[in-house]
């Protein structure tokens, strides 16, 4: 049984092995997967779907307005124990004028807060508050 704080029950992480940048405003996340306590209580994740990730609270020193990126994927496969969700053809895209944010590294990952996305609240909260975490498991601080 996974141990986690009650306040983290809605934590969702997406990790990847490699990031490819082939065009402005879009990158591909290779060998990406979701993990986190919320997978055990969430509805099944659909193939050919996306999420709107809101990075503004972390990136507000780097951008002039909102910073919302679209995370999209094609195929979803759950691990046998249901603790991992493997994603195929995963892309993160954003408007071109937001290219002043740093490129992702292969060992970075996102932590996504899904607490506002229970059935009763989801319709009023279309974006997911998201944080970029480094290889030391610390949130990047762009306030420097």
Characterise this structure:
- 6% of the residues lie in helices and 40% in strands.
- By secondary structure, it is mainly beta.
- The protein has one domain (6-133).
- The protein has an eleven-stranded mixed beta sheet with strand order 2-3-9-6-5-11-10-1-4-8-7.
- A hairpin with a 2-residue loop joins strand 2 and strand 3.
Instruction: Please state the average pLDDT score.
Output: 83
Work out the number of β strands. 11
Q: Regions with pLDDT < 50 over 5+ consecutive residues?
A: none
User: Largest sheet at a glance?
Assistant: 11 strands, mixed
Strand order of the largest sheet: 2-3-9-6-5-11-10-1-4-8-7
Number of domains: 1
What distance separates the N and C termini?
39 Å
Shape: globular
The count of helical stretches stands at: 2
Radius of gyration in whole Å, from Cα?
15 Å
Work out the strand percent. 35-45%
- Order of secondary-structure elements: EEEEEHEEEEEHE
| Percent in helix | under 10%
Give the tags.
mainly beta; single chain; 11-stranded mixed β-sheet; 2 helices; globular; 144 residues
How are the secondary structure elements laid out?
Elements: E1 11-15, E2 18-23, E3 26-30, E4 32-35, E5 49-54, H1 56-59, E6 68-73, E7 75-78, E8 84-88, E9 90-93, E10 109-113, H2 119-122, E11 127-133
Parallel strand pairs: 5-11
Antiparallel strand pairs: 1-4, 1-10, 2-3, 3-9, 4-8, 5-6, 6-9, 7-8, 10-11
